[in-house]
Amino acid sequence: MDTAPQIVRYGALIPCRTAFIDAHTPGSDHKENFTVIGGGVSESPDQHVHIATPHGFNIGAAGQPPRCRNSLHDHRTAEAFFVLSGRWRFFWGRWGDAGEVTLEPGDIFNIPTGIFRGFENIGSDYGMVMAILGGDDAGGGVMWAPQVIEDAAAHGLILAETGKLYDSKRGEALPPGVSPMPLMTPRELAKRPEPSTAEVLPNHVARYWDMVALADRAPCKVIGAAGLLRDRPGFEVDFITSGSASDAPQSRDRPTVLMPVRGHWRVTWPGGSDTLAPGDTMSVPAGLAHAALPSMSGDAGLYRVTGTGDPAGPTWRG
Question: Which residues form the Cupin type-2 domain (predicted)?
Answer without folding.
Answer: 69-130
